[in-house]
Every structure is written in C-alpha cells, then in structure tokens.
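Step 1: inspect the first sequence and its tokens.
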Amino acid sequence: MQSAMIDLLMKALGETVYMVAVSMAVATAIGVPLGVLLSTTGKGGILEARAFNKTLGAIVNAIRSIPFIILMVAIIPLTRLIVGTAIGTTAAMVPLIIAAIPFIGRQVETSLTEVPYGLVEAALSMGATPLQIIRRVLLPEAMPSIVAQLTTVIISLVGESAMAGAIGGGGLGDLAIRYGYQRFRPDVMIATVVILIILVQLVQFAGNLLAKRLNKK
C-alpha cells in the first residue's frame, strides 16, 4: 500500500476517533441525567412521577426506533442549522449525538434499577434527600455497570460513524466508500475493516478494565 494511502488511513482514523470521542462526551453529559430521570421518576422511584416518566419514555423510544441512516438524512436541516453544513466530521456528530442520547439513557436506567432497593431505603431512613441518594448511593453503586454499558455505546458509535461516511461524514467509513468501493480498491476496504476491528477491541478492553476496577464487590 502506498504511503499516501497510509496517510489517508491515519487521517481517517483520527477523524473517526474525533467524531466518536466528542459525540460520546456530549451524549453522556445529557444521557446520564436522562437515565437518572427515567429510573427515579418511574413506579416506586424516589422522584415518582408516572405521567412524566411515560411521556419521557415514549420520546426516548421513538428516537431509538429510527434507523441511524434514516436519522442522518432526516435531520440534515437541523445539522445545517447547528454547524452550518451537513457534510464533514463535525456535521456527522449531530446525528451521532442524537442517536446516542436515548441509548445511553436507557442503558443508565437499566444499571440504576439493578441497585438493591435496600440501599435506597437505608439512605431514606437516615434522612438523605433524593439528590443525595442519586449522587451517593445510586450512581456510585451502579458505576461499574454504567461503564460497561457506555462501552457498548462507544462501540455502537464507532459503527455508526463509519455509516456516516455514506453521506460524506468523513472518517474511515467515508474512506472505505470513496476509495475502497467507488475506486475498486479492496486493499483499502480491508485496511479500514481491520482498523475498525482493532479500534473496537481496544475500546472493549479498556471498558472492561475500568468496569472491573470500579467494581467494589
């Protein structure tokens, strides 16, 4: 493989990492509180509000039900409004973030519901406020599971970032389509697949290691 193509591969890898890292950071900042709300406002939750919970849950489910490739195209006007363009790595982050937020919310909700309710009852008996219970009981106890769930989301974003290449989103997916598929370069296609596999393996390893270290059991 030519050195110029290797440079393109490295540039595409950098764009993919940039897209996934920024999208994950923004989506986590919104998705984790969303998951807390979904968990605590449900039936028997410390902030029980069933009508609110059902409405929020319906919105989350609606967004999650949209295939990513359709979501990317459907929100092109919104993407243009936010970043000024619908093409490129920065533009690709808008649908990536929107797709990841409800996914993270549901994953965090699942992790929080796994925390033994006895711990919550003990905190309530000692006069802890709902916010204190969330910060000092629920999130710390669920953190290993949350990290494991977020690892799954990152891997999903890696795949979706590659899919974003179909509409000029940049990254490894864009390189695979423009050079591997359209220019009939199977070596480029194979190289991008291998890089994506290695990237996913590294993310999974790091996520498993962090979750294991956070697990106090």
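Step 2: inspect the second sequence and its tokens, then contrast the two.
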Amino acid sequence: MTQKTPQILPVILSGGTGTRLWPLSREGYPKQFWPLASDQPMLAETAARAEGPGFLPPMVVCNEAHRFLVAEQLRGRGARIVLEPAGRNSAPAIAAAALLAEEAGPGTVMWIMAADSAVTDLPALHAALDQAAAAARAGRIVTFGMKPTAPETGYGYIEAGDALSGLPGVQAIARFVEKPDAARAAEFVAGGRHLWNSGMFVATASVLLAELERYEPAMLASVRGAVEGAQRDMDFVRLAAEPFVAAPSISIDYAVMERTQHAAVVPASIGWSDIGSWAALWEISGKDAGGNVSVGPVELVEAKNCFVRSEGIVTGVVGLEDAVVVVTDDAVLAMHRDRAQDVKKLVEQLKAHGRKEATEHRRAYRPWGHYEGLILGQRFQVKKIQVRPGAKLSLQKHFHRAEHWVVVSGTAIVRRDAEEIMLRENESVYLPLGCVHRMENPGMIPLVLIEVQVGSYLGEDDIVRFEDTYGRA
C-alpha cells in the first residue's frame, strides 16, 4: 500500500493596503477584498487556487480590523483566521503561521502567498507547486520566480543559479536583486537568468522555524510569545498584542531568504501579476480595439490605451491616450498610465492634509453588513444601512444622539428598552437619546433601512455596547 502524500497548508497573507490602487483600495477596504482580475474578490480567488484533495483548509493572517471581511469572503472554506494586533511585515506573520502549522505536524508543507495577486494559468501553477513541494520536503525553502514578460521596474528580481540534483524544475538562487531601473531591468530580461520575485514561498514549518531561529531569534521569540498567549475565538486566533508588537518589522526576504543556505527557486510562467498598480491591472485585462479597458458605466470617444473604471457614476473620456481614470462615489483619480507608481505619493499627500478619503470609503463594513453616509449636516446625519440575513447589531445606547429607522426592504426586529417591535417595509421606529436598543434581521433577505441621526455629536465612537455577538468592545 503506497503512502499518501501529505496535504499542503495554504497560508494567505492579507495584511496589505494596496495604496497604489487608490481610490478603490483603501486601508478600511483594501484591494484583496475587491473583484479586480475577475468577478471574484481577490482573497476568495486566491483561496480557490488551493482547494481540493491535496490541500488542507487555508490559514489566513490578517489585520484584526478586517477579520469579519475575511470570514465573510471565505465562508464555507473552513479557514483558520490569524489576527495580527499590528502590522509587522511578512516575517512575523509567516513565523506565527509556521508555529500554528506545527500543530498539524512539523513536516507540514506550507504554501505561503499574498491575498492580492492574479494567476491566469492554474495548471501551470499547480505543476510548479508540485516541484516546489518536493523540494520543500527535501529541506529547501522555495520561492516561485516568474519568467519576465517585460522589463518591469516595479518588481524585485531573482538571479537563478544551477539546477538542483534530484529536484526537477528547481534551481539554486544566485542572488536577490532590488527593484532595478529601466536599463538594468532590460538587461535582466535580455540575459534570461533573472526572474520576477513573486513573493510566494513553499517550505515545511520545521525548516522555516529553524532558519528563523538561526537568523532572527529575538523576532521568533516575540512571535512565539504571541502565539502562546493567543486567544482562540471560533475560527479566529487572536495573537497576544504585547509580544507581537515587540517583534521587529521585517520581510521574510531580509529575515531568511537572502541569508539562508536552503533557498531555491522554481521558474514558472503562470500568468502572474501582483496587480500592484492601475497600469498592472490594465496590462492583464481584456481590451477593446483601441487598447482600452473599461469597467462600469463608462463611455469612450477616440480614447487609446486607457484604463477607465467607475463604481457607479457615468464617466466619459474623450481623446485621451495612456490615461487612467478611476471614479468612486467620493473620489476621482486621473493620471497618465506611466505615473501609476506615484499614486502612493498622492495618498500620502491626502493623509498629510487630513483627508479621510485617503483611508476610508463612504461605505463602512461591519460583521453584520454595512452602512454608508448619504447626507451629513449640522446636528443631523442620514445613512443607508444593510443587515445580512440572521445578523444583528450590538445592544447599545448613545449619549449624544437620537435615531429614526425607516425600513426600505426586509424585516427588522427592534429592541427599544423593554419593548420588542417588528418592522416591515415602509414602517419606522424612533429611538430617543439614551435608550438601549438593538436591531436584528430575522428574515432570509437583506434588511435595508434609512437611519436619520439627530444630536450634538454624531461620531461613531458615541456607542456604549452592552452585548455583542461579534465580540467587539
């Protein structure tokens, strides 16, 4: 009887903010939660690449603020969600995943990948993964090197070395190269030995931890303390804050890959892109006869090689070439496609000027659904609220505002102090200042309502929670 090959543990890193894809991607709702390369959100698309008989349920390491977004988008996949109390780059995140993976056995092969990359050739990806997993079981830490299709300056490069004996398709790594200028990138592509650094890694938990112990023992000790002090809540693993925050912020490339003697690379052509900018998304998207990519209600007249996306407002572009135009409900980005890497500078400038649009959308997501601001005036505010079937808001009160709720569609059960009130479409309820209240959607369809707030202070921090299904303070 042949022994079954151990399953691979997908580890998805979902801590990025995707600044260069502003105004769509923002800290509150970054690019991995948006459908960009397909009709699926990027996180769900990433998880779908690692499903089937050869894989364990995924482990996702994410920002604590995004935990319910991750849980919702990976519903039904059995995902284990590890919550970082603070961002500390990739090495501490991977260390935490490796320590938790050891629970399934120290020889567990981890496939570590970002939540926000695109892959178009899945058979080629899985073939490369088979080669990488074999090398990982032989003690290697393997990265995937993407065969360049252009002299890209936005990626780091790997210079591939000699083939490794007994490991088909796997090569040693001669060296890592930082993002080059255009001339050097052209040399790399012409030479044929350099590959794009994809940021995907395959290794066993035991080998990764041994190398972290060798090169970054203080960092590993901090993360070990965070894992040992973690709280487990349903599918969430909440890393202990104090030891994790004490860990240095360092990438896995600097912590291990550029120092270890066990590094290896699998060269691959899998239609990969990190979608790190609007120009990168234009590159991989289907285009019209004029080389344009349009998403949403967009009209183009004599435009060439443009990327235009609108999230709702009719957007017209006339006579532009090589332009990027992105329109959301509260912001517009317009630029030459060659300046795509400079969006980050714009976001930093918006932050410096105190513009909340730099980091927040008008629509705010919560574990029970979402809300969006419609009108904000002096002493009043109007919001549209949507509550998922079976979900409920916290039991709460406010010190500075009263609220009116009007149901647009669906059914609501409202608790108001000692009362319990059922509301249907076109019915309303008044919640006076200071009353203890809660709303629940008992139905099978989303509950949509309009909320009118009136009071001296309308901030989201004017909430006293008495009870919450989702463990929020």
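Step 3: confirm your contrast with the notes below.
The mean pLDDT is 93. The chain has three domains: 8-268, 278-352, 363-467.
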